[in-house]
Design a protein that fits this description.
With about 180 residues, the protein is an all-alpha fold. It contains six helices and no strands.
Length: about 180
């Protein structure tokens, strides 16, 4: 790992020097820096593959196979998680688009800053969702609906216990939260 970090840093330095030499009077240094970072990351990946090829040759001896039946079985099993993820993404973006369209960009900016604060809590909930979806689907497949009911009741009680006080605090100190 230290060797890879050193190589990446070294390649970033070399690509910086080369690209600054090639584009001396560039007014768009952001794109230049992004290009340098991308080139160095790509070169580091190639060097890492070469390193793996010589140090761990058994990794490249057997190529992975594609099993069409297993692929469709996995897709069928995970389609609801996929659709849920798409739904969450659409819900999280459509409100900002509607606010920008109906109101002003100032309101959209305020909403977006508050929403990024809320996303901290949503990421914690998303972690629980990723853990619980396979467990609940396993219980459902086995027909253990009582366990699913216990999990749902536990989530509701914990959710109310946590969300209610946090909501009250955020409502009382809304102006302070917006200023943050």
């Amino acid at each position: 790992r230290p060797l890879i970090t050193f190589l990446k840093t070294f390649l970033i330095l070399i690509s910086n020097l080369i690209l600054f030499y090639l584009v001396e009077n560039s007014n768009n240094l952001g794109k230049l820096y992004s290009l340098m970072w991308g080139i160095s990351t790509f070169l580091t990946f190639i060097i890492f593959l070469i390193y793996l090829r010589f140090k761990l040759p058994w990794l490249f001896e057997k190529l992975p196979t594609f099993d069409k039946k297993l692929y469709f079985e996995l897709i069928n099993y995970s389609k609801y998680v996929f659709l849920g993820s798409i739904g969450i993404y659409i819900i999280s973006q459509i409100d900002i688009i509607i606010i920008t369209f109906l109101l002003d960009t100032t309101f959209a900016g305020v909403y977006n800053s508050i929403f990024s604060f809320i996303q901290i809590f949503l990421s914690i909930l998303a972690t629980f969702a990723v853990i619980l979806i396979p467990v609940v689907s396993d219980f459902y497949e086995r027909g253990e609906n009582k366990k699913i009911e216990k999990i749902v009741n536990l989530l509701y009680s914990v959710g109310i216990f946590l969300i209610l006080p946090i909501s009250i605090i955020l409502l009382l100190y809304a102006e302070l939260v917006i200023e943050l």
